Amino acid sequence: MLEIDWKPEKKSSQPMYRQIVNFISDKIGSGDWTIGSRLPSQRDMAKAFGVNRSTVVTAMEELISYGILEGERGGGTKVASNTWSLLMSQPPDWNKYISSGHFKANVPEIQTINKLEFEPGYIRIGTGELAPSLYPSKLVGKIIRRLPDRILSLNYLGPLGLPELGKAVAERMKKEQNIDADPSQVLIASGSLQGLQLISVCMLKRGSNVYTEAPTYLKSLQIFQSAGMNLHGTPMDEEGIKYWSIKDPSRDSLLYTIPTHQNPTGIVMTQQRRQELLSFCQRQGLPMIEDDAYGQLWFDEKPPNAIKSMDKNGSVLYTGTISKTMAPGLRIGWIIGPEAVVYRLGDVKMQTDYGASSVSQWIMTELFTSGDYDAYLDWLRKELVARRDNALAALDKNFSDIATWNKPTGGFYIWLKFNRKVPINKIFAECLERDVLFNPGTVYDYTESNAIRISYAYADPDDFTKAMDVLADEVNRHYPDR
């Protein structure tokens, strides 16, 4: 379904229906709207254009008479041609190319979220990043002012990234997580998400199996699926993934886990479960990807060390990032693993972007080695605790009798699960009409979900409270006996 984000100029001397005809013709002529694309209903178009339905009808009738559009049996209109009224200017049929690429499109809800997160006016209670107000601009400014004395050039860097940053990451991971890694085992990536993509394109065969927690953040992406791999969800309990549910994994498989402040549930895997999971994977010859995006964002008690800290035979690839603690725009993450693996990933990375931003790598080197980063993390944790407590109060006010949720001990997320079936995707659309944007649980789970991922990290606390009132109001429409 095509989206419309344009309105005719009401003060123009040109009739509004004519402006609509020209707008649609231009969209088709430029190739933005491809042959076979379906237009919204006349009622929805009238709402989008801000005109009467009769104006839309007039415009549609003219475009259909040209042969550009055609009505479909049972209602609806689609793009039929791009020739007659466009002075025989025929763009390529981009639909053919769009559908032939191997990288799968995001699910519709994720596409909507990705688009609307950049539109003003929405209260974003699902966004997995820090609020702009939490960005340490003064600290980053101070760091940047130091850089001229350290940076001798901004040329391309080697396959593993800036050596100084690789060394700083190795030292920090030893201090924080007791991970023994030489800098030669550290690859600097453009965010940990790129690390997953590199693994998907150069480490696994088509048809391989990827076992994950259920629900999981990885399910909301199309990285491994686009590379021809099969995702399999494994249930969790309060201690983490139930690894024993994985039966006879093939040799062309791996396991992906977020053991600390899991996304989206917030679960922290216990030390015992971590040991058991590693032992299971090693017995089965099942490599592991450990995603530790939220490991530094603990509140009152430091979680168990990373699974990688117990890995003595190189069976775990560990990914970290500063996207959740600092800013995703810096595009800095890292992968720790055997030298042969990280050099293979680094070789592929050189073929894709020739290295992460040199400036960002120098910024993070200075932050990690100066001591400023640790002081900043102490401050950030306190800020997130206050936001978490505000979120829990709002949830208790609105949902205590109809839902359950976790109390986060770190990270960003609350997994709000309703006690009975509600139409999550319909509520998602209804909340959008009232300028509230959340992440439906359906994008993370392998079966029909009855949950919502709530993030308290982005929205202003007052706005968050207002958004919870809106969400409760829409949920109540589907609880008539409440």
Note down, in words, how this protein is organized.
- This protein is an alpha/beta fold.
- It folds into 3 domains: 16-97, Arc Repressor Mutant, subunit A, CATH 1.10.10.10; 108-128 and 376-476, Aspartate Aminotransferase, domain 1; 152-370, 3-Layer(aba) Sandwich (Aspartate Aminotransferase, domain 2).
- Helix content is 39%, strand content 14%.
- The protein contains 15 helices and 17 strands.
- It has helices spanning 16-29, 42-49, 53-66, 94-100, 108-116, 137-146, 163-177, 192-202, 223-226, 271-284, 339-352, 358-370, 372-399, 424-433, 461-476; strands at 38-39, 69-71, 77-79, 123-124, 186-189, 209-214, 230-237, 240-241, 253-257, 288-291, 316-321, 333-336, 403-404, 413-418, 436-437, 439-440, 451-455.
- It has an 8-stranded mixed sheet with strand order 5-12-11-10-9-6-7-8, with helices on both faces. It has a 4-stranded antiparallel sheet with strand order 13-14-17-16. Strands 1-3-2 form a 3-stranded antiparallel sheet.
- Helix 2 crosses helix 3 (53-66), helix 7 (163-177) packs across helix 12 and helix 13 runs parallel beside helix 15 (461-476).
- The longest helix has 28 residues, at 372-399.
- Residues 84-90 have low confidence and may be disordered.
Keywords:
482 residues; Arc Repressor Mutant, subunit A; Aspartate Aminotransferase, domain 1; eight-stranded mixed beta sheet
Quick recap:
The chain has 482 residues and is of the alpha/beta class. It has helices at residues 16-29, 42-49, 53-66, 94-100, 108-116, 137-146, 163-177, 192-202, 223-226, 271-284, 339-352, 358-370, 372-399, 424-433, 461-476; strands at 38-39, 69-71, 77-79, 123-124, 186-189, 209-214, 230-237, 240-241, 253-257, 288-291, 316-321, 333-336, 403-404, 413-418, 436-437, 439-440, 451-455. It contains 15 helices and 17 strands.
